[in-house]
Amino acid sequence: MAGQAEEGRRVRLNRERVLAAAVALADEAGIDSLSMRRLAQELGVVPMALYKHVANKEELLDAMVDVLVAEIDPPAGGAGWKSAIRQRVLSARRVLLRHPWARQVLESRTRQTPAVLGYTDSFIGMFLAGGFSVDLTHHVMHALGSRMWGFTQELFDAPAGPKADAPAVPPEALAAMFRQMAERYPNVARVAMAAAHEEGSVVGHGCDDQFEFEFALDLLLDGFERLHQQGWTSRQAKPARMPPASTGT
Amino acid sequence: MAGQAEEGRRVRLNRERVLAAAVALADEAGIDSLSMRRLAQELGVVPMALYKHVANKEELLDAMVDVLVAEIDPPAGGAGWKSAIRQRVLSARRVLLRHPWARQVLESRTRQTPAVLGYTDSFIGMFLAGGFSVDLTHHVMHALGSRMWGFTQELFDAPAGPKADAPAVPPEALAAMFRQMAERYPNVARVAMAAAHEEGSVVGHGCDDQFEFEFALDLLLDGFERLHQQGWTSRQAKPARMPPASTGT
DNA sequence: ACGCTAGGTGTACGTTGTACGCTTGTCAAG
DNA sequence: CTTGACAAGCGTACAACGTACACCTAGCGT
Description:
By secondary structure, chain A is mainly alpha-helical.
């Protein structure tokens, strides 16, 4: 009578089922909808049942990151460090784009799970294998930063949540709003105008994120390559061609 | 008898006092401790009183970002785009370091307040004034990303919350843990070892964050300069020396 | 002296993570 | 087949959160 299950009924829960459901829920309903209660409901189970399979929500999120990492392609062999890293990063990016919640969760994580450490380790290994000194590797890893995961701090775009929440903008008031913005923020307006072919949105939508990402990635990789070829090995050891640090005034 | 106020007693609340208290609380107790209730308590007031001065917590956080932006030095004039931008970014970074919560809050913000737009606008203006094309400016702004705010996705360091939460690590078990890690993640271990002069921490503490930041910043700025000097103006207009995008295999 | 309004109060609701103890399903050993 | 133990799932409960809503009140212009 309680009518609890929708289908298969008594399929024992386990860690994988919990993780898969969590990822699916986050994919479909957004990370903000991922509460222990909601997840439990999705699994036809009482909230506290989850705690038999994950220690707490933090650990759940950590585990979800591990799922993510497992989706990234293994390093491609034999084509030189530059293209190997490029491919790896773009693979990571593809994963990230499949899971809109990934960026936010990755940013919030503070614990380094084995899977994350493994990814980092293999990533560092690619530079070392390419002949980079330990020091240079260290620095370029920092320079890559979150780009290692295939994402960038996107400062312009929408929260990617429930779409189409532009409820009832008066069709012409928008133009006025835009004109006012162009007046107050002329420079933003110029680049936004230039980039907005597709949508007539107010600010900077309609630019090719993938192009922007690869543009910056290649800029960095080229920089790395130059340093490496110039024999840069360590901060103090050989300031032959360090980035010219024009110190202040 | 109720013993409510600690000192000045009936000093009328206002928006500035609320904001200042919020910033101070976040600075001292960490952003996680900044709840409306805790903030109200800090001000000797009932939680709901705050809502007469800020619309809700989101707006509070937005306003806190505005406080931050106001602390960043105005653009330095007359020294060329490169050093102007460099100085501005490093000024932003100094602000960020004063307010440990800033990174997390900035990352979470989705609304562009006027102050944020103003900062972005002035930032874009520096590139344009330096002779960058609108398109190139667009791309380099993306490439800068969050570095515009003086921060990077620091993937290695601690949450910066309450310090010294290493409770009672057996003095020698740590060495064993480290040895095990070096075995499983040899590459991480190599760069961590090389960077750890100061502390004997397990992973990558004790590297010079400021150096890492400037290293990457200068790498990018140099890349921008090179593109600019080579006459790069637009994606399709002149592929004279685009970043060599070795597409896939 | 009056009354208007901005500012502060009190209560209450819904939602969150999760501690603790009880019950029940499942399987191995007797 | 019975039994007993252990893992899995349940139910209740609590503290903390953001905030809606109605109320009271202090201080000011008239």
